[in-house]
Structures are given as C-alpha cells and as structure tokens.
Amino acid sequence: MLTYYLDAVTTAEPRLMRRLNFSPVPTALAGVVDELAITYDLVDDLLNPVYPVNQPTLPVTLSGKLFGASQIRKANLRVSVRSDTTSSPLDDYLRSTTDTVVSLRSLAYISRY
Prior knowledge:
two-stranded antiparallel sheet, mainly beta, 7 strands, five-stranded antiparallel β-sheet, about 50% strand
C-alpha cells in the first residue's frame, strides 16, 4: 500500500511524502510544494454526461441540481513544486508542475433496481 501526504510538521515548508506499507520512515518525493489542487468531474445520474469539469468543492448546486460525492467520476490532481534553494544563473527557484487524472471506477456503479 502506498500513502502520499503533505508534511508541513517536520520541515518549515510543505513536502510531498510517500510511505510504503506503513513504513515508519517516509520518503520525500519532491522539493517544496507550491500548489496542490484536487478538482472533480461529476456525472448527472439522469442524463449521464460528465460535467462540470474541475469542480473544486462538494456538495454543489449547479443548474438547480445538487451534486455530491457519489457523483464523482474523475479526480484531477495538480502538484506544483519548487527547489529548496535558488538557482545561481537564474537567481530564482526551479519549478515543475504535474497534472494527472484519477478515474474512480468504484463510484461508477449505480444500482438501478
């Protein structure tokens, strides 16, 4: 089992950490985390289109319909990190951003009987 989390307790700035199989020693995966954003794509149970894209909070009412956690079909994850120290030639931090999508298939099953 892999566990990912932000650690802002043992260091002054938040770091992305990973633990493997409940290991007591986590591994730092990245430098300083500038941004961690999770948004959701939702599905309308009646019409089945996936909308809206990138909804940041739940529950939410859109077009008069209430959307909740059971209507999440996809989670969008964005992680932006920077280096610990500044780069000499640039006199600025080195930055990197990664975007990925997680499909939540276990939430796609809906009993219609």
